[in-house]
Amino acid sequence: MDVHALGYAFALTLLAGLATGVGSAMAFFARKTSTKFLSLSLGFSAGVMIYVSFVEILAKSNSALAQVYGPQGGRWYSVLSFFAGIALIAVIDKLVPSHENPHENMSIEALDDEAKKEEFARNHRLLRVGVMTALAIGIHNFPEGLATFVSALHDPSVGVAIAIAIAIHNIPEGIAVSVPVFYATQDRKKAFLYSFLSGLAEPVGAVIGYLVLLPFMSPVVMGVVFGLVAGIMVFISIDELLPAAREYGEHHLSIYGLVAGMAVMAVSLLLFL
Length: 273
Fold this sequence. Notes:
Helices cover 87% and strands 0% of the residues. By secondary structure, it is mainly α. It is built from ten helices and no strands.
């Protein structure tokens, strides 16, 4: 394999992943007192994740599986993978409850003011939302990084197009992580770091894919992975992001944010894919 081709493919993948940092920087412009902005941002994040899951990721799953099982079989296995992803993240969510950590309970009990206790609990929930979103996006970015890397190796022009598309929709994904983490911790650097690290899953995916997974990668494996990721992202959006968005603002603000997130993602996919 040509060393220059490898370097070029990795550079494209790295740049696509680093675009998450643009969205991550939103934490530096957020204002702690603006709960309306938080509600809109959480709704926006849910819109981004739901739209990209149903329109792009699930379609990739179906397309990959259809290569092996045909159009009808591909749809069935894609749907099964989607709901398997939902079941997987639901089990994880159940095994790691947010209010049964003894250290957190001790911290809340140590507060002697009911308002402070309530604020602590709300901030803890927001931090959980941010971390779960970072996890989902990181998992989603892993196969994306592998796809960008492999595409660039086979056809540099196709690799550029895919890298641009991924970079564009990584920006709102960065917002999805950084804003709730900042509101929970009031730490802009931590918010940026969590979000930025989720984007680095793409070049990590490229490296691991090249070193370990590429010899075993098949349309079936990629199709199942994309289906699982779509299910995970939809579940987190419905279970974590949207309820938090409604809690911190008017009902319609979260819906406006949801629609805006879908619209931004739709435009980016239409223009660059």
